[in-house]
Amino acid sequence: MSERLKKMTVEIKLKAKSEIDLISQEKSKKEEDPRVFAWDMRFYQRSINESRIKFSHQEWKQHFSMTNCIAGLNLVCGSLFGISIKEVPMGAESKVWHEAVRKLQIIAPQEGLVSTVYLDLFARSGKDVQPSNEIIQHAKVDINGKLIQPSTFAINTSFVPSLEGANLNFRDLETLFHEFGHILSFIFLRNQRPGNAPFSLLEIPPILMEKFVNDYRVVSTFAKHEKTGKILPKEWFDSAKETYSLFKNTEKLTKIALAEYDIAVHNLRIIGRNTSLMLQKINENTLPIPHLDGTHFQTQFMHLGPYGSSFYSYILSEIFADHAWKKHFENDPLNRKQGEKLRNEVLSLTGLKDPFEMIKLYIEENPDKIME
Ligand SMILES: [Zn+2]
Fold it and tell me: What separation in Å is there between the alpha carbon of 196 and the centre of ligand 1?
């Protein structure tokens, strides 16, 4: 795996260098020193994005009300798995932690209610900013596998609300679908918990779910303007995708550096070692910008600590999800036959079955070949 990362790093480094050059050019318009440091990244990336985007954010968001986004989830999950997702009033039996929380019910044709999902999506003071999904109550099944207690989940994100209200931008929509992908695994796993195996590929379903909102054929079915009912123009959608992927190689390199670190701490006895120095060395060998002395990123990034799927498997999940999308969904994204295949061969087994056996069956190819 580490060899694979090294190979990827060489390929991506060159492309990332030109992305950093772009940031350097932008910086030189405002500052004398054009060298790019970690603290410049977000600011100048945003400024470049804003100069290239072909729509107004307010107009964009008017196509992505929560009602529309829930309709999008319903459309994708209904087409693929035959389940329906609907928002319901909170009801007296639901004691929620904040008035902004919304409640969804997931209904399967034979069983009725299989799950309740609480959405707490918008930022407020004191709220955790890291997107997450939580199991509030596991499903229960009897000895014949009949569902006797539906599961309950919560999705937590800190999207920035717009002046128009609770509407989402492109990245928010991706995040909502990503977190919902995790929940789908939990729903189809029933009363079984996905394992904390060192190599579980838990991120394949959520990364696949993101791909549905990166496809205009899918998004155009629900992204309708709140007032006029007009569908989101394709030109805007293409502009958002292009602009938000301008720095994708730099992002990939950051993920590769963290995966290298993750492998290092898995393979070594780290008691007594300085993990900040380990990460610094990896960053210096991998990233196109200088490491920030005195920082300890590994201590605050949840994916490197208590998370069930180790971070290096995130990169593999991306590779396999890309492959699965091209093979099974690209021609016909909302294909029920492929949805059932995804459900039976991945969602119902993620974390339970040997991940390489699982993926081999699903993509119908040798995973080693794909990783080459
Ligand atoms: Zn995830």
Answer: 14
CA 255 to ligand 1 centroid distance, Å: 13
Inter-residue contact 8 to 256 (CB < 8 Å)? yes
Mean pLDDT to the nearest integer, 330-337: 96
Please tell me whether residues 206 and 67 are part of one structural domain.
yes
| CA 216 to ligand 1 center in whole angstroms | 23
pLDDT on residue 260: 85
User: What average pLDDT is seen over the chain?
Assistant: 88
pLDDT of residue 329: 97
* pTM score, whole prediction: 0.89
- What pLDDT score was predicted for residue 57? 86
Q: Which residues pair with 151 in a beta bridge?
A: 115
Does 193 have pLDDT greater than 70?
no
**In this structure, are residues 250 and 19 in contact, taking their beta carbons and an 8 Å threshold?**
yes
Residue 363: inside a domain = no
Kindly give the distance from the C-alpha atom of residue 172 to the centroid of ligand 1, in angstroms, as a whole number.
14
Cα 179 to ligand 1 centre (Å): 6
Do 30 and 109 lie in one domain? The reply is no
- Distance set, CA 361 to CA 126, 334, 342, 358 (Å): 44, 21, 11, 5
